[in-house]
Amino acid sequence: MPELPEVEVVRRGLxxxxxxRTVEEAVVLHPRAVRRHFAGAEDFAALxxxxxxGEAHRRGKYLWLPLTESLSLVGHLxxxxxxxxxxxxxxxxxxxxVRVRFADTLGTELRFVDQRTFGGLSVxxxxxxxxEGLPVTLAHIARDPLDDAFDEDAFHAALRRKRTTIKxxxxxxxxxxxxxxxxxxxxxxxxxxxxxRPTASLTRPRTAELVTxxxxxxxxxxxxxxxxxxxxxxxxxxxxxxxDRSLDAYGREDxxxxxxxxxxxxxxxMNRSSYFCPRCQPAPRTSS
DNA sequence: CAAGGCTCCTGATAGC
DNA sequence: TGCTATCAGGAGCCTT
Length: 288
What we know:
Blueprint: H1 4-17, E1 23-28, H2 41-48, E2 57-59, E3 62-66, E4 71-76, E5 81-87, E6 96-102, E7 108-114, E8 120-125, H3 152-161, H4 166-171, H5 181-191, H6 204-225, E9 265-269, E10 272-276
Antiparallel strand pairs: 1-6, 2-3, 3-4, 4-8, 5-7, 6-7, 9-10
Helix pairs in contact: 1-6, 3-6, 5-6
The chain binds a DNA duplex (16 and 16 nucleotides) through residues 1, 32, 35-36, 61, 76-80, 95, 114-119, 162-164, 168, 171, 173, 180-181, 270-273.
């Protein structure tokens, strides 16, 4: 499941292998992969044809490449998506959804492969005057904690204003982007915060700690996963972006907490799981 | 309007 | 062995 570090690796790969190339033809092999392109697959392909892929940008888990001054190509990997640059002669992947062929002689093409089709590609209007070609559909996505423009004071103020719990807030892409279930659990473990801690109870220093730990978790993953991108493959494999040795909480039910030895617990939460150390991350008093 | 829950999808795995 | 049930989860959309 790609989170921010994995998506950043993909962005670098796109910048290296795709930006600047002219599209010869886009072929949509599965309509669901372009379902966020509201005008349909044919329109999607027509807009791409002849377009020059611009610089690769990322905000949170979204990627985009400007095509013109007013249109950008948007990509989201969802849970199982991959963007691959493959030799045009390579056999089709089992879950190949979109092919983008280029009008050059490099002999490679861009492929969107996605088993569960939670991800997808689409073309959207650009926020007028935005220098990076930010698509309007991404305007509600908050800056991520690796972005220089991330505003920690504003994030803290938003947490204090909300009547919700901290893990929900971490997964709310309009407050902070790029954090998914895995890194949320990891950052909360590092900060010794229980996932049901009310956001309104966080002090400013506590928010600072949490943001620091999010950056550390992401930075570690990026350092580990970002080393091998300089190959033909734009993406690392959906699974291989994670490094088990670096996980302290997620997926470690009944295994000893690396700080205190108490068995890590798993709780059903929002149709998924939360992993935490019951000793290091005690439940807030207010929860019954 | 804010908050919380539902839902899309397919393959791996567990359980019988 | 082969079937069914369960789980994984990002984020848009719906309900309360």
